[in-house]
């Protein structure tokens, strides 16, 4: 049974405003379930739990209970654990990915004190690399770089056989490029890394979380980063570790926390209102297939499997519709050095260039047609592929609620450039 897109669209109240949203990479639409979850969490966070009882005239005691807000942290951990196929005791929560990455970069320093290497990727989002670049300043530590294919935007897994050796301690990979849509061969990279070193593999899964299921064991990842806001959740991010035995090997951000606890990497409590939106966001993904049954993890597997099939269909329709327009260049897809798009693993995101037309003018034409896209933000890979010299590019990113009619509307607007 195919994904019921009409039903999915009904889960987003914001779609009734007459605009066509093609900017899921920058501002994903927020499901009504998430908005209601956050509102409920803010409203009830200070309320007493049902387990609290009165003790005289001066207060309450809560044997086994507490404030309702305390439960939202636990529910957020469980939801993220279900999302990636882990257990809640391995989940570290943070306000955003930047804070979590800086905390992790500081925490892994003990693994580098005797010399070691860190491998980053030039095709990754700069915010993923930046916290780890200073690790190269540690005595005896070097930073090595995996290079992308400038024709396709892919990053070959074979190069890690040359980059990884016994000194490697950390390898950082983004699961998919946020602007081009190319998906990394994460499992193949992780297998190569683990066969040649004792390094940990950190995978930023944020970009793919809105399009397909995540199983960190299948990936072979040691640490998975998820930004909930990328799939319409609140501004909360999480790091999920392979097992709790990794925590004692890391420096603590909070010294009073147990050495083997995920809490040692958390800088402090998060707003319970935002935490209250994490579980509804994951429940939203788990409920995309109405007939899915069983545990939340089982429902996630069923729903995201169907979602992946639909997103693959939309991705091919998007590329097919745009690549035959005369004079249009799709970065990594069209051109003499591009590969076979039908063999590439992609999510439905493209960055397009209209030769001779500034990207802002292209975006304005699309806005005039009630299409929401963005001028591609600065990105090292897009710059190397020539986007800057061509006047910039416009990024189109689809969400679960988009349809072929949205793509056809985009195609007509772009075709108007002649």
From TrEMBL:
Region (Disordered): 46-68
Pfam families, alphabetized: Aminotran_5
Keyword Transferase: yes
Polar residues biased stretches: 46-55
Entries under Gene3D superfamilies matching the protein: Aspartate Aminotransferase, domain 1 (3.90.1150.10), Type I PLP-dependent aspartate aminotransferase-like (Major domain) (3.40.640.10)
UniProt GO MF annotations: transaminase activity
InterPro entries: Aminotrans_V_dom, PyrdxlP-dep_Trfase, PyrdxlP-dep_Trfase_major, PyrdxlP-dep_Trfase_small
Keyword Transport: no
Record's keyword terms, sorted: Aminotransferase, Transferase
TM regions (residue ranges): none
Domain Aminotransferase class V stretches: 74-226
SUPFAM superfamilies: PLP-dependent transferases
PANTHER family: CYSTEINE DESULFURASE, PYRIDOXAL PHOSPHATE (PLP)-DEPENDENT ASPARTATE AMINOTRANSFERASE SUPERFAMILY
Protein name: Aminotransferase class V-fold PLP-dependent enzyme
Species this protein is from: Corynebacterium pygosceleis
Organism phylogeny: Bacteria, Bacillati, Actinomycetota, Actinomycetes, Mycobacteriales
